[in-house]
């Protein structure tokens, strides 16, 4: 007889958590060891319960699923993170995979496939919903973008102002450009940095050394 797979359920919607816990509770070989409503709670519970698998939502308050996944993978390598989300955009998938998630399933996954995915993740196998696998394969087949896609000096000026918390209108006044031009620069930045929002653009630029680190 094998040991049960110990699972931590992480989702910011109480009804979703209850549904998942109820489903797992009647499964003979899976044991729920805790539940969390955001990434911060998840990290604390991983420390205290040391689950085999964390069933992780992506978009949550305080600390999102991608950030929590990276922290769990680096700090608790024996614990596997299986993303369970409604989002299947390329950006969400890639960020989760880059953070070290063992798998990526969607919330409309049939129960039996979800249970099999949890078991597979606990064994160290990669688990991907078919639409997610197709998106990843498509990305791999797409030729790499040319190297000359670094943000321009002007675009970095705009992003530096974003990092200081300025609005588009405030950035336009400071740089003596129209608000529409600010938006154009930001859209080009999003494309070049492969992000879809201002916060992520600043984060990626800091990680790549394109912006100076904020003074502490």
Short description:
Helices cover 52% and strands 13% of the residues.
Task: Give me some keywords for this one.
216 residues, 6 strands, alpha/beta, 6-stranded parallel sheet
Description:
This protein is of the alpha/beta class and 216 residues long. 52% of the residues lie in helices and 13% in strands. A 6-stranded parallel beta sheet has the order 2-1-3-4-5-6, with helices on both faces. α2 packs parallel to α3 and α3 packs parallel to α4. The mean pLDDT is 88.
Topology of helices and strands:
Elements (H helix, E strand, L loop, with lengths): L4 E6 L3 H12 L4 E7 L2 H11 L3 E4 L8 H11 L4 E6 L4 H10 L3 E4 L4 H12 L4 E2 L1 H12 L11 H11 L4 H8 L3 H15 L4 H10 L9
Parallel strand pairs: 1-2, 1-3, 3-4, 4-5, 5-6
The helix/strand order is EHEHEHEHEHEHHHHH
> Uncertain regions: pLDDT < 50 for 5+ in a row?
none
Determine the N-to-C terminus distance.
53 Å
| Number of strand elements | 6
How many strands, which pairing sense, and closed or not: the largest β-sheet?
A: 6 strands, parallel
Q: Could you estimate the helical fraction of the residues in percent?
A: 40-55%
Structural class: alpha/beta
Strand order of the largest sheet: 2-1-3-4-5-6
What does the radius of gyration come to?
A: 20 Å
- Give the percentage of residues in beta strands: 5-15%
Count of runs of 4 or more consecutive helical residues: 10
Look at the structure and give the mean pLDDT: 88
| Shape, principal axes of CA atoms | elongated
């Amino acid at each position: 007889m094998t040991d049960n797979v110990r699972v931590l359920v992480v989702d910011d919607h109480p009804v979703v958590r209850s549904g998942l816990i109820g489903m797992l509770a009647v499964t003979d070989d899976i044991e729920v060891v805790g539940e969390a409503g955001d990434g911060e709670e998840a990290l604390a519970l991983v420390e205290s319960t040391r689950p085999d698998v964390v069933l992780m939502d992506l978009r949550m308050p305080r600390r999102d699923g991608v950030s929590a996944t990276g922290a769990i993978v680096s700090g608790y390598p024996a614990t596997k993170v299986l993303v369970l989300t409604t989002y299947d955009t390329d950006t969400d998938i890639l960020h989760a995979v880059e953070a070290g998630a063992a798998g990526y399933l969607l919330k409309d996954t049939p129960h039996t496939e979800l249970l099999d995915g949890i078991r597979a993740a606990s064994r160290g196998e990669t688990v991907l919903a078919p639409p997610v696998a197709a998106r990843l394969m498509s990305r791999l087949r797409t030729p790499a973008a040319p190297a000359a896609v670094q943000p321009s000096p002007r675009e970095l000026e705009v992003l530096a102002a974003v990092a200081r918390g300025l609005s588009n209108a405030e950035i336009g006044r400071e740089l003596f450009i129209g608000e529409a031009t600010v938006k154009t620069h930001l859209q080009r930045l999003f494309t070049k940095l492969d992000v879809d929002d201002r916060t992520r653009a600043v984060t990626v630029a800091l990680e790549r050394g394109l912006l100076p680190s904020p003074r502490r």
